Amino acid sequence: MTEQEIVAKINSSLAEEFEYDLAAMTPETTLFEDMGLDSLDVVDLVIVLETAFNMKVREEEAIRKIRTLGDIHEFVIAKKRQLEGDR
């Protein structure tokens, strides 16, 4: 899966889950201010990512630093690389 495919999958999955306009999603889109997510939505966000990419992301320090879609993109791309390297 290419980085572009990962980004597209993240954006489409989150747009569907949180009923957000896919066209308005950019790397600079903030989760809390722009998308209107709250702390409970973050739990759903983690579940969406785990399901979409068949990986666990709970309780990782990096997940606490995520504020924008770009942060999510970088996190998932790095996680996928790490998992592929562990094979």
Automatic annotation (TrEMBL):
Gene Ontology molecular function: acyl binding; acyl carrier activity
GO CC terms, sorted: cytosol; membrane
Protein origin, superkingdom: Bacteria
Keywords: Cytoplasm, Fatty acid biosynthesis, Fatty acid metabolism, Lipid biosynthesis, Lipid metabolism, Phosphopantetheine, Phosphoprotein
Residues with O-(pantetheine 4'-phosphoryl)serine modification: S39
Pathway: Lipid metabolism; fatty acid biosynthesis
UniProt-listed InterPro entries: ACP, ACP-like_sf, PP-bd_ACP
Localization per Swiss-Prot or TrEMBL: Cytoplasm
Pfam families: PP-binding
GO biological process: lipid A biosynthetic process
PANTHER family according to UniProt: ACYL CARRIER PROTEIN, CARRIER DOMAIN-CONTAINING PROTEIN
The protein's role, per its UniProt record: Carrier of the growing fatty acid chain in fatty acid biosynthesis.
Protein name: Acyl carrier protein
Organism: Geomonas paludis
